[in-house]
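TL;DR need structure tokens for one chain.
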Amino acid sequence: MALSAAEGAGTNQSGFNTPGQGRGLLEVFRWRYLLRLLVRKETSTRYRNSVLGWVWSYVRPAAQFIIFYLVMGVFLQMARGIENFAMYLFSGIIVINFFSEGFSNATRSLVDNAHLVRKIYMPRELFPVAAVIVSFVHFLPQAAVLLVVALIFGWLPLPMYLGAAILGILIVGLAATGLGLFFGSLNVAFRDAQNFVELILMVAVWASPVLYSWQMVASQVPEWLMLIYQINPLTAGVELFHLAFWDPVTAGAHSLPDNFWTTVWIATAITVAGVLIGQWVFRKIEPRFAQDL
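>> reply
TL;DR here they are.
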């Protein structure tokens, strides 16, 4: 028998969810099988119909390394001021490349998957998170090259070095995720967000000690500006990679600032806050995704 209007109005609807609403990043763990499919799709199609295939994962960092080494190391003679400059440079480049690729791809991820966003419901956070994970997959071959070179020069896989590397990559990966959520959601409504991201990425290489040492910055800027520089998550991530791979090979030649670990934990807190802010903005704009796409 059909329910009357009164009976229907009194029906308990607590078990129903608002369509298109989830629990944010927490949903990514519940939908991890779909996350794996997205990652697999992106990694398998990235170099489809490409002659070199996965070799392209090495070409870009190799080209960057050669150019920066010649310009900064040879022409500007930075190699004389930084011992084992080649390893110092490469360990910083692969961290910045991971951040740049993850952040850029996460920003475009919703627009690139507009057909899925419009047609079916799934946690939309899956797309930027998958983009960052794919960037991490592309980062691994470069990290393997760094690891082999470090081992040749006498690096030992001690827990403290491994811990520094893991912490560094976590900070950079979370920073890319938080910014990707923020700008990825804005990019749905305002496509010029991608252009703003390109400006950020252009500055990122120079805003962290990849091509130079932190001592050069400390000698030129006041203490308060140096503190801001140090709590930059990219600076923390790059310096942790230097601490993990380059510093042991140079026999401790890399003197750290007195407040190094304090600024690293501050940078970590800033990164976590960035993820929370990015998620909040993402959730605010999410109801308009299908309409704007």
